[in-house]
Amino acid sequence: MARDHYATLGVRRDATQEEIKRAYRRLARQLHPDVNPDRDTQERFKEITAAYEVLSDPEKRRIYDMGGDPLSAGGGFGDFAGGFGGLSDLVDAFFGTTSRGPRSRVRRGADALVPVQIDLADAVFGTTVELTVDTAVVCPTCTGAGTAPGTHPDTCPMCRGRGEVSHVTRSFLGQMMTSRPCPQCGGVGTVIRFPCPECAGDGRVRVRRTIEVSIPAGVEHGMRIRLAGEGEVGPGGGPAGDLYVEIEERRHPVFRREGSDLHATLQVPMTAAALGTTLTLETFDGPVPIDVKPGTQSGTVITLRGKGVPRLRGMGRGDLHVHLEVLTPTKLDDEQAALLRKLAELRGEEIVEGSFKAEQQGLFSRIRDAFNGR
Known about the structure:
By secondary structure, this protein is α+β, with helices and mostly antiparallel strands. Among the domains are: 1-56, Orthogonal Bundle (Helix Hairpins); 256-367, Urease metallochaperone UreE, N-terminal domain (HSP40/DNAj peptide-binding domain), CATH 2.60.260.20. Helices cover 24% and strands 27% of the residues. The protein has nine helices and 15 strands. It has helices spanning 5-9, 17-31, 39-55, 58-65, 87-95, 120-125, 270-275, 334-346, 363-371, and strands at residues 112-118, 127-138, 154-155, 164-171, 174-181, 190-191, 204-215, 224-227, 243-249, 256-258, 261-269, 277-283, 286-292, 301-304, 320-327.
């Protein structure tokens, strides 16, 4: 009677791949021949290894769940083990089948993306940050081979190392030979009978590591910095992908950024705007005096050249634009109100009559003037 691979690993029939991997890793550490050399333990280790070989491969698991034996020479379904491999196999059937050969077990790893938050000052001057990332690295136990210590991959018994299986059928066109990747070895030509107990045959493990990243001056929100070879190590200990660091710039309480230029709003009391004064603005380069000329109006912009953000792909820095906002007092005591009335009297402004310039009149004002014959 066929063994229940799910029961062998102690997992449910709907277990995820991660649960199957954890179960095998736990049992392999207990039953590995290096730990328990007796014969019964070795047989038990072979059983959990065979169970993991079936359940860790989606195609083999599907065949097993349908009642087949994916470890048999025919995959458990006789002549249907070959099947049609797609359009390329049909073309090969008409124009001659060419062997593709086994594919490599070693593949390139995936790229990784990590966001990093920086302050506006870091974007102005550049900085260095330390990132803690969880990525896959080469398994230290098997150095990427995926096999248990002292063991090696075996030639696949189904495809005999070719990485593909062929099947001859008869049709109205005559005999046709089709090929597809071997379902037992996945097209690599070898099978791992004794997977590494540390990585469960994947050739890589996940670890937490710290990476130092240099942030250049002038970076903007949303930009990505590429760190070649710092991403995920590939299956079988393959070359690592790249790590992309995405910049997230925190909002500054004073300055607003537009490209390489900075903008700031400076509030000026009404009396200071009328009489003129000099105010101090703390910039990223230190305190800078802002000369407010007498009679300055709200909305006036003073530009400080070269006080902005460095241009990432150019020369020099942007500018700092200081927007002046004249504050009108909202609460006056009797003395202050009397002084303002005296000022209005001296300026001949006792009776204030508002007026609009022609370009400031709105649509409704123009319609009203048209009806009044103005």
